[in-house]
Amino acid sequence: MIKVIARQGIQVPVEGRPDRYITDKEAVDVPETAYWLRRLRDGDLLPYAGPAKPAETEAADAKPSDKTADKPAAPAAKADK
Question: What is the tens place of the pLDDT at every residue in 10-37?
Fold first, then answer.
């Protein structure tokens, strides 16, 4: 399944249900059939990844890895003279 949304201003008929449409108002999951892949390739549909998070929210959500948080720094290697 792939999540898609129609390009702005376009209504794409649902495969097998010509009385229903995918619009630019709501993303939907569709199977990876030739019909949907062709609509993606033609530009009538766009892959939908979800709304983007603001940068400051992403930074606040990120937390350091537990493996590196308490690990002491490695000793420096000595150079040969």
Answer: 999 999 999 999 999 999 999 999 999 9
